[in-house]
């Protein structure tokens, strides 16, 4: 029983971070799902949790090699950029999905910030991203229908 207690005690900070990243991203995912965008309720929390997980997984290494954290963060940001690129679609002259792609990238930053213990930055990114998606979407001009 002592090993179970020890495991739970040692893993609690990481579990807490994963839950915080998940919840912050869920707010953004909810917006995208309600707007029936290409990425939504499942994608955003998964991106945040994965980003957080990648950063947490090098925690022991980064104590010995301070550049390891920077390399992993660079890889996470690059990988999420590819996921975001998949959300962008072009139809004729119209380009759709750029806000979703940017939100995916921001969600990755939320997960990374949580993993690094920068909760205030994670909350700020989540607030700015959600605020932009919820408050500015009604102000976006709609493209006229194709007449072709």
Average pLDDT metric: 85
Globally, the shape reads: elongated
Number of domains: 1
Distance between termini?
71 Å
Structural class: mainly alpha
- H and E string: HHHHEEHH
Low-confidence stretches: none
Largest sheet: 2 strands, antiparallel
Lateral arrangement of strands in the main beta sheet: 1-2
Q: If you compute it from the alpha carbons, what radius of gyration comes out, rounded to the nearest whole angstrom?
A: 18 Å
What is the total tally of β strands?
2
Proportion of residues in β-strands: under 5%
Q: So how many helices? A: 6
InterPro entries: MgtC/SapB/SrpB/YhiD_fam (IPR003416), MgtC_SapB_SrpB_YhiD_N (IPR049177)
Subcellular location: Cell inner membrane; Cell membrane
Domain MgtC/SapB/SrpB/YhiD N-terminal: 18-140
Keywords: Cell inner membrane, Cell membrane, Membrane, Transmembrane, Transmembrane helix
Explain what this protein looks like in three dimensions.
With 148 residues, this protein is mostly helical. The protein has one domain (2-135). It contains 6 helices and 2 strands; from the N terminus they run H-H-H-H-E-E-H-H. It has a two-stranded antiparallel sheet with strand order 1-2. A hairpin with a 2-residue loop joins strand 1 (89-91) and strand 2 (94-96). Helix 1 (2-34) runs antiparallel to helix 2. It is elongated, with a radius of gyration of 18 Å. The relative contact order is 0.15. The mean pLDDT is 85.
